[in-house]
Specification:
With 461 residues, the protein is an alpha/beta fold. It is built from 21 helices and 16 strands. The longest helix is centred in the N-terminal third of the chain and has 18 residues.
């Protein structure tokens, strides 16, 4: 993986409104609305690589064997889905099931494009108590469950236990301690304390800001009031600057931060769970390059530990949530049936491609509450799935990763502020202001500028 996270699915409100821009929707379903007699379904998925498509097609084939209902799996990137659903809604030709990121769920729901009754029925049938609570909150809009949470990833901090010991610092348990530890490491060892994306105005900085600020207890907006200038956010900005200054290599984009840790030039790394295969030398495109790694490709995996929750008193891990939705006008009964199959009998197989980035958001069943998160630890990671997470990092880490994914959080999720938060993120509003902090402006001045910029976006809604 060459990025802090897989590219997130952008939400384009303009695309949703531009129904007249496209002439047709080539992959749509029948739009009959009643799935009782469905013979086939259409499923749009953003998991578009050949390996991931093959897994999803296998699950669809097994579903057909069990029910007699065929499923056409259609690769559809997020932005393309936004445009195509708008056209399909106008013509009555929509897919039956779509896998979406949570900001898209909010946008589509606001446009009346989602059959929320089908999603709510699926969650009720599967058992709401078996789902990741935060993920379910993210798709509960206006008090109604609008989608069925499937899988996601979170940020974590990978750290070299050997280097922290050498620097004489304990594993941090809060953002404040993380900043102090990063500074000490730079001073004591002469290497980067925490490697992460800090280049102003970039997507890397957008994720870095949101991840650190969230974990420090900062909220972007609450009940329509922009709060990015609150005392908690001012303190978060101060910690962010300290962490940024712990770099010995200047400001980094995400690939540079990743490379620094893989080369042994950084003691800690803020990254998504996609780093798990890379640390063990299982990703040919991003090999480990530390001095010790030449003789032992697993050196980093053996010497790395993780903070799956940066602040245990404020468990808000930045990440991504993918959920199944049934579009308005789809074959709802059969679509619900497919979703329930994909979230039970076909669930583990669905997650098996690139498992390091597809962590279950349904923890288990009523009878076995941790069945799926436990099974996730036994899935292969890396291109060929040569090793499992549990084999490489241990069962304790799998349990800790369960805590991490159950702490997944995004500003505004599940509230009326979701659209604003999504636009602030996709437009890089906060990252555009962060350079002022680097140039000597106070944290109070920078967060005040952030607030003004966010309110300008809000005024345009």
């Amino acid at each position: 993986m060459s990025h802090m996270s897989r590219p997130r699915i952008a939400v384009s409100l303009a695309a949703l409104a531009a129904i007249s821009m496209l002439a047709g929707c080539g992959a749509g379903g029948s739009g009959q609305g009643d799935g009782a007699s469905a013979e086939s379904l259409t499923f749009w998925t953003p998991q578009t690589t050949p390996e991931r498509l093959a897994v999803q097609e296998s699950v669809a084939a097994a579903f057909e064997d069990e029910t007699g209902i065929a499923v056409e799996v259609v690769p559809m990137a997020g932005a393309d889905a936004d445009q195509a659903i708008a056209t399909g809604a106008a013509s009555g030709d929509v897919p039956d099931v779509v896998l979406l990121a949570s900001p898209q769920v909010s946008a589509w729901n606001a446009q009346g494009l989602i059959d929320t009754a089908a999603a709510a029925a699926a969650v009720e049938s599967l058992g709401a108590e078996t789902f990741n609570e935060h993920a379910l909150e993210a798709v509960t809009l206006d008090g109604t469950v609008s989608a069925v949470p499937s899988d996601g990833w979170t940020h974590l901090v990978a750290y070299r236990a050997d280097l922290l010991e050498q620097a004489g610092v304990e594993a941090p348990t809060s953002v404040a301690e993380l900043a102090a530890a990063a500074t000490t490491i730079k001073e004591q060892l002469g290497i980067t304390g925490l490697a992460f994306g800090t280049q102003p105005g970039t997507a890397s900085a957008t994720e870095g800001v949101q991840s650190i600020f969230q974990s420090a207890g900062c909220e972007l907006v609450e009940d329509g009031t922009v709060t990015i200038d609150s005392p908690a956010c001012v303190e978060a900005a101060e910690h962010f600057l300290t962490l940024r200054n712990s770099s010995t290599q200047g400001d980094m984009d995400v690939p540079a931060a990743q490379a620094a840790y893989l080369a042994g030039d950084a003691a800690m790394l803020l990254f998504s769970t996609h780093i798990l295969d890379e640390l063990n030398g299982l990703a040919e495109a991003t090999p480990v390059t530390c001095g010790e790694c030449a003789g032992d490709p697993q050196f980093l995996a053996k010497n790395s530990k993780f903070l799956t929750v940066i602040d245990e008193d404020n468990p808000r891990q930045y990440g991504a949530i993918l959920s199944y939705v049934v579009p308005t006008g789809a074959q709802s009964e059969a679509a619900q049936q497919f979703i329930e199959y994909a979230m039970s009998s076909g669930y583990i197989e669905s997650l098996s491609a690139a498992a390091e980035g597809r962590i279950p958001l349904r923890n288990g069943t009523a009878e076995s509450p941790t069945e799926y998160i436990d099974a996730w630890g036994d899935l292969g990671i890396g291109v060929d799935g040569a090793a499992t997470t549990a084999e490489v990092y241990g069962e304790e880490f799998v349990a800790e990763m369960g805590e991490g994914i159950n702490s997944v959080y995004l500003w505004g999720m599940g509230t009326g502020d979701t659209t604003l938060a999504g636009l602030v993120s996709s437009q890089g509003v906060l990252a555009a202001q962060i350079e002022q902090l680097y140039n000597g402006a106070s944290a109070e001045e920078v967060t005040a500028a952030m607030k003004q910029a966010v309110e300008e976006v809000q005024a345009g809604l």
